[in-house]
Design brief:
Layout lengths: L1 E5 L6 H10 L3 E6 L2 H10 L2 E4 L5 H9 L3 E4 L11 H11 L4 H24 L5 E7 L23 H8 L7 E7 L2 E3 L6 H12 L2 E4 L5 E6 H14 L5 E4 L2 E5 H12 L3 E4 L4 H5 L3 H4 L8 H7 L8 H8 L7
Parallel strand pairs: 1-2, 1-4, 2-3, 4-5, 5-6, 6-10, 7-9, 8-12
Antiparallel strand pairs: 9-11
Length: 320
């Protein structure tokens, strides 16, 4: 297959490109820079330089492909245009920075997925989009049949935008990723949590720390995207979860041991002071099952687990 991948030089997208190439597929990828284009070309993929707002480019690239994997994501200010930044801070004055960011993210994602879907319309070809486990129903082990909680920020807009094309002849599915997609080179949640503990001299958890986090290795996630592309069902929501529920206290305790700082309980009200923007996520109890995903696609996570990966990569000098 000829597969078009957005976010092709990102943390997850670059692993997806490598997985597809190793499986014998041809790949073209969207990247935002000339340096990214050079990286893709060295990997053996064709490169397009552009952004998610360039809908004509997305539509044309999708139409020329046999299928699309959408992993591109706006992670922060560095990923935003000047216009987006102005809108973000203007919106922050009317409802908060998180709400403003999520509105911009939803509009950008929905528009980009709409362009990709229109390029695949009436073809029966696959469109696989990245979504998230966060904010599925709390306090239970969420399954692939569950929908996101509607009154909090989540990635459900990506799923809705893709599934709108099912009735228009597109085999759309979603891969819901664990909040912790780990591996060598990770710059996501866990490195920020380690950095906060190193900076503040303490490794906290919320309350009793029994709330559960999911995790998946980057390479296992990449394999799941490939399988969803090749075999995925229209409307399916696959769970990119290698470990279904790790008590956050265990994560905090490992960090405390490796940094030689105390692990302590703090109330929710102090989470933002220590963790910054991640404060609202730390106390979530969001375990999730991958049973249906494994049975349906034959996906078997094979890489090392979160704690082994943390020991190997997350406490060296480069992680400071």
């Amino acid at each position: 297959m000829h597969v078009f991948v957005t976010g092709a030089t990102g943390w997850i997208g670059s692993a997806v490109v490598e997985e597809l190439l190793s499986a014998g597929h041809n790949v073209s990828g969207l990247t935002t820079s000339a340096a990214g284009a050079q990286k893709l070309q060295k990997m053996g993929a064709k490169a397009y330089v552009g952004k998610l707002g360039q809908h004509d480019l997305l539509r044309k690239s999708a139409a020329e492909s046999d299928g699309v994997i959408h992993t591109a994501f706006i992670h922060g200010l560095s990923s935003m245009s000047l216009g987006m930044r102005v809108r973000l801070f203007a919106g922050a004055l009317n409802g908060g920075i998180v709400s403003s960011f999520m509105r911009i993210l939803a509009e950008t994602e929905s528009g980009a997925i709409g362009a990709l879907g229109s390029g695949l319309e009436n073809s029966g070809r696959p469109l696989v989009v990245a979504s998230g486990i966060l904010y599925l129903p709390q306090g239970k082990v969420a399954t692939e049949k569950d929908s996101h909680v509607s009154n909090v920020p989540n990635r459900s807009f990506s799923e809705r935008a893709a599934f709108n094309f099912i009735q228009r002849g597109v085999r759309a599915s979603a891969v819901r990723l664990a909040p912790t997609v780990h591996g060598d080179g990770d710059h996501g949640f866990i490195p920020h949590i380690v950095q906060a503990a190193r900076k503040n001299g303490v490794s906290p958890y919320i309350g009793d720390g029994a709330n559960r986090w999911t995790a998946v290795h980057r390479l296992d996630a990449a394999k799941l995207f490939r399988l969803a592309l090749e075999k995925g069902e229209a409307g399916a929501k696959y769970h990119g979860v290698g470990e279904a529920g790790i008590p956050f206290q265990d994560i905090a305790s490992l960090i405390a041991t490796r940094l030689n700082v105390p692990a302590v309980s703090i109330p929710t009200s102090k989470a933002a002071k220590h963790f910054g923007m991640l404060g609202g996520f730390i106390g979530l109890d969001n375990p999730a099952s991958n049973e249906w995903t494994r049975q349906t696609l034959g996906w078997n996570p094979e890489q090392r687990g979160l704690f082994a990966d943390m020991d190997a990569h997350y406490f060296n000098s480069a992680a400071k």
